[in-house]
Specification:
It is a single chain. By secondary structure, the chain is mainly alpha-helical. Helices cover 58% and strands 8% of the residues. The protein is built from eight helices and two strands. A two-stranded antiparallel ribbon has the order 1-2. The longest helix has 20 residues, at 33-52.
Length: 171
């Protein structure tokens, strides 16, 4: 490592990352700090997109209305191609629309419409990565009004078009 021979050196940056019980450590000289700043900006942008896209997973543990919401969540997964209204989902959960919105937000961490949109994008990602279906058909299967709607939503969420995403997956 630099400076181990007792030679004076300008302080740099040491980056250590622990991944799956392995530690990766890198030493960067002061001249590299500008590049690190650019890299950090790009990484923060990706992290922001990843953190602001709602996860379409499970209900938060021990939520009071978990059983009521399960029917609505199952319905969303099975009917992504159909128009989905909050009124319809509230009826499935057996609660008023206002109560459903509040309970859904508490349990899932996002409002129903954002969850539905994220579920549609997740399904589109899966189909793009695993099938050769035309993008317009994928848009229809996932509940987007047309290919342009899917492309615009996909670009906002993933900083890439569906076609570019598919090409990256197939490499």
């Amino acid at each position: 490592s630099a400076g181990s021979e007792g030679t004076p050196h300008a302080p740099g940056v040491r980056l250590s990352v622990d991944v799956a019980s392995h530690t990766l450590s890198l030493d960067f000289p002061p001249a590299a700090l500008g590049n690190l700043s650019s890299l950090a900006g790009a990484m923060l942008g990706q992290a922001y997109r990843a953190l602001t896209i709602p996860i379409t997973g499970a209900i938060r543990p021990r939520h009071l209305h978990a059983l009521r919401l399960q029917a609505a969540l199952q319905y969303i997964r099975e009917h992504l191609a159909d128009p989905l209204s909050v009124e319809q989902l509230a009826e499935l959960a057996g609660v008023s629309v206002a109560h459903f919105r509040r309970v859904f937000q508490e349990a899932m961490g996002v409002p129903p419409h954002r969850y539905i949109h994220a579920a549609r994008l997740e399904q589109a990602r899966k189909l793009l990565a695993t099938s050769q279906l035309p993008i317009a058909r994928i848009a229809s299967y996932c509940g987007f009004s047309n290919q342009s709607h899917l492309t615009a939503s996909f670009r906002v969420a993933h900083a890439a078009t569906p076609a570019k995403y598919r090409a990256q997956c197939q490499r």
